[in-house]
Design a protein that fits this description.
Shape: globular
Order of helices and strands: EHEHEHHEEEHEHHHEEHHEHHH
Radius of gyration: 20 Å
Number of domains: 2
Helix content: 40-55%
CATH topology of the largest domain: Spore Coat Polysaccharide Biosynthesis Protein SpsA, Chain A
Oligomer: single chain
CATH class of the largest domain: Alpha Beta
Number of strands: 10
Length: about 325
């Protein structure tokens, strides 16, 4: 085990309990319901907080409200100093796409909730990603550290913004971006304090300072990542704060299976992948449409039903996957 005393920026702490935070945007809620069901079944968390607009929660709550520990946070009630309309105006004034404001808004919400008083650890989870297998969050060391599904791809625009805000470029050999990230409350709060700038010189809310730090050339589609920024900040304090671990994920599950996969199809995915992302934009993609027209999706579902459709008492996770599929079928 590494010597933690060598990195005084982060004091060891008890890892539990963990609160999951799932952001859900407008539109159909089937994928989000399946994701929340999977988190409850496969991930060792306590409470699960859904961050969404009131109309979205009213549609989602009947599907997940019966699960243990589910709560709702109105996205409009999260205090970040600005609202979505302010972000839209800022983007429009700089010649960028105003509809992209939602992308930045949800990232600011994630950081603000991670930094808010309450749970020491918060699992920030993308609402379009399904866990397909049991997922551990911490290492099994004497002083557990959060596990990180590290990726090698580094997106230069993110680090140009980070360098302007924190004075640091990429410090780690990997990216911190994934479909989820475990954040510690006090570290997220320290990060927001640094993003806000020096005391006595703060003339704008910290999200606006972030937007102003993004170069015009990077503003669209995105010049900021909350996960990359938090990871870089924590890595600066303690290069050994995270324990990398391999996770296999598929981001084009919507293209492969469509918006309503069967339980057998999810079981087939779980044989190869830990996580599956059903991005809404892929529902109308050219590849997805041709797979539907040619019957490839239907063929895959038939093949999955033949291979994985029958009851398997040896598979302890089949029930959770079936519940997730039912949520998406609805």
């Amino acid at each position: 085990m590494p010597d933690r005393a060598a990195h005084p920026g982060i004091a060891p702490g008890e890892p539990h309990p963990v609160e999951a935070v799932v952001l859900v945007g407008p539109g159909p809620t089937g994928v989000a319901a399946a994701a929340i069901t999977g988190i409850r079944g496969f991930v060792g968390v306590g409470a699960i907080k859904v961050v969404a607009a009131e109309a979205t929660w009213q549609e989602l709550e009947p599907r997940v409200g019966a699960l243990d520990g589910i709560g709702w946070i109105d996205e409009c009630a999260v205090k970040i100093g600005i609202n979505r309309s302010t972000i839209e105006r800022h983007l429009a004034e700089r010649g960028s796409s105003a509809p992209r404001a939602g992308w930045y808004f949800q990232q600011f919400l994630k950081l603000a909730i991670a930094a808010s008083p309450g749970s020491r650890w918060r699992l920030i989870w993308d609402g379009d990603t399904l866990p397909l297998r049991p997922l551990r969050l911490f290492s099994d060391e004497r002083t557990p550290r959060p596990l990180l599904a590290a990726r090698e791809v580094l997106h230069p625009p993110y680090f140009r913004t980070i360098a302007r805000l924190l004075g640091e470029g990429p410090l780690a050999a990997h990216s911190f971006i994934h479909e989820h990230l475990l954040m510690r409350q006090d570290l997220a709060a320290r990060l927001i304090a640094e993003l806000a700038g020096p005391r006595g010189h703060r003339t704008a809310p910290w999200p606006m300072r972030v937007l102003e730090a993004i170069g015009d050339e990077d503003l669209f589609p995105s010049g900021f990542s909350e996960f990359e920024t938090y990871g870089t900040f924590v890595h600066r304090l303690d290069p050994e704060a995270f324990v990398p671990r391999p996770l296999i994920s598929i981001r084009e599950a919507m293209i492969r299976l469509g918006p309503r996969p069967t339980a057998a199809s999810l079981r087939a995915l779980s044989a190869r992948f830990d996580l599956a992302t059903f991005e809404r934009r892929h529902c109308w993609s050219r590849r997805g449409e041709w797979r539907r027209r040619l019957g490839i999706r239907a063929f895959c579902r038939t093949l999955d039903a033949w291979r994985f459709g029958g009851p398997r008492e040896s598979d302890p996770h089949a029930a959770v996957l079936a519940q997730m599929a039912a949520a998406m079928q609805a």
